[in-house]
Write a structure and sequence with these properties.
The complex is a heterodimer of chains A (about 110) and B (about 120). By secondary structure, chain A is an all-beta fold. Chain A is built from no helices and twelve strands.
């Protein structure tokens, strides 16, 4: 069975702090894809990143970085020098190769205070 | 700019009513999806479609049906609305390309309240 666990329900930080959002997944597939989405207060999910199971290179995009470790089945997301605009609910999701059906985690609500 | 639109942001219906939620995408995507989002449960897939007139059940299809008569439009139907269907409904689309799994683009959501 496939499963995505985001154990952190809610995180609060002060602006400029670094914060890491955890994502642990379960799958028996050898080919799979991992995603992160951001849901700001407006409600619309915004795609952040897609990573396939064969690419374990870490990714950096501005203040965002992702750490994919197959050995621990984790795909963690770090925001460096957080800003108030980063306040949102963040979802990690998993799909197996050959299908676009996503299994979502329950989300982590990040609040960044000025 | 990619665009997925949903017919209503907020909807209030009475128990037993038939409810239609419409979704339109302008990206010529083959795949379209309907999810519901509830606090503490994340997003759960109701139905998806990978082609016109094609549909597959997701994880929670009970009480719902769908229609896809045109590539750009995917409708979610609640045949007889019940209070436990009060939720946020999100539509998404993605392209279909080989065995790869592509990112989904989401609409703004419809918050449905059934009284």
């Amino acid at each position: 069975a496939q499963k995505v666990t985001q154990a952190q329900t809610e995180i609060s930080v002060v602006e400029k702090e670094d914060v890491t959002l955890d994502c642990v997944y379960e799958t028996r597939d050898t080919t799979y894809y991992l995603f992160w989405y951001k849901q700001p207060p407006s409600g619309e999910l915004v795609f952040l990143i897609r990573r396939n199971s064969f690419d374990e290179q870490n990714e950096i995009s501005g203040r965002y970085s992702w750490n994919f470790q197959k050995s621990t089945s984790s795909f963690n997301f770090t925001i460096t020098a957080s800003q108030v605009v980063d306040s949102a609910v963040y979802f990690c999701a998993l799909s197996h190769g050959g299908t676009d059906k996503l299994i979502f985690g329950t989300g982590t609500r990040l609040q960044v205070f000025p | 700019d990619v665009k997925v639109t949903q017919s209503s942001r907020y909807l209030v219906k009475r128990t037993g009513e038939k409810v239609f939620l419409e979704c339109v995408q302008d990206m010529d995507h083959e795949n379209m999806f309907w999810y519901r989002q509830d606090p503490g449960l994340g997003l759960r897939l109701i139905y998806f479609s990978y082609d016109v007139k094609m549909k597959e059940k997701g994880d929670i299809p009970e009480g719902y049906s769908v229609s896809r008569e045109k590539k750009e439009r995917f409708s979610l139907i609640l045949e007889s609305a019940s209070t436990n269907q009060t939720s946020m409904y999100l539509c998404a689309s993605s392209r279909l390309q080989g065995l790869e799994s592509h990112e989904q683009y989401f609409g703004p959501g419809t918050r449905l309240t059934v009284t």
